[in-house]
Design brief:
Distance between the termini: 27 Å
Strand content: under 5%
Number of helices: 5
Helix content: 40-55%
Low-confidence stretches: none
Length: about 90
């Protein structure tokens, strides 16, 4: 699954996480729309105490899925009517 449009993702091809992260930040600075969750992944927003911004690690994946701000908890809260953003 890609968090980027097909066109952008194909353009990045096999770039490393660090290169993609730089491109995402630059696109955001240049006012190119970057979906919020995509930006958050590359900024490691979901990772509790990130220690390496060069790679997407197993810990990053685990925190993205199951962390305090993880996608599973967020979707569960939303589906159960506990969405705090509305």
């Amino acid at each position: 699954m890609a968090l980027l449009s097909a066109k952008i993702n194909r353009g990045y091809q096999n770039a490393s996480f660090l290169e993609k992260r730089r491109w995402i930040i630059e696109a955001d600075r240049n006012t190119t729309f970057v979906p919020p969750c995509t930006k958050n992944v590359f900024l490691k927003y979901y990772t509790d105490n990130p220690d390496n911004f060069s790679i997407w690690s197993a810990k990053d994946r685990e925190d993205y899925l199951h962390g305090p701000y993880g996608i599973i908890k967020t979707i569960s809260n939303y589906l159960n009517g506990e969405d705090k953003t509305a």
